[in-house]
Amino acid sequence: MLGFTFRLTNQVGYWNISMKNYSTVQVAKLLDIGTDTLHRWMREKKVPTPPAEAVGGMSVRLWSEGDVERAKTYKAEHYWGKGGRKKRRK
After folding, report:
1. Of 16, 52, 70, 85, which residue is least crowded by CB atoms under 10 Å?
2. pTM over cut 0.90
3. Is residue 86 part of a domain?
4. How far apart are CA 79 and CA 62, in angstroms?
5. CB 26 within 8 A of CB 20
6. DSSP state letters, 29-87
């Protein structure tokens, strides 16, 4: 899966910093959860939410690799998978 790659250059044009960022949808796919689940975790402040930034006239949240790791840690500790009804015994 490809994320956004931003590179900062100095006045001469040399590369200084290269950061890989992901959209919220990409993070949900990386974590193998639904976007609704990730948005709920963000709304309930269970996962640190990156600030919204304007990219191409749209407001998006760009997740750094550190943000993704924190979300993975939360999922490993708290997420049991999709909910649903348990089947009755016969």
Report:
1. 85
2. no
3. no
4. 23
5. no
6. HHHTS-HHHHHHHHHTTSSPPPPEEEETTEEEEPBPHHHHHHHHHHHHHH------PPP
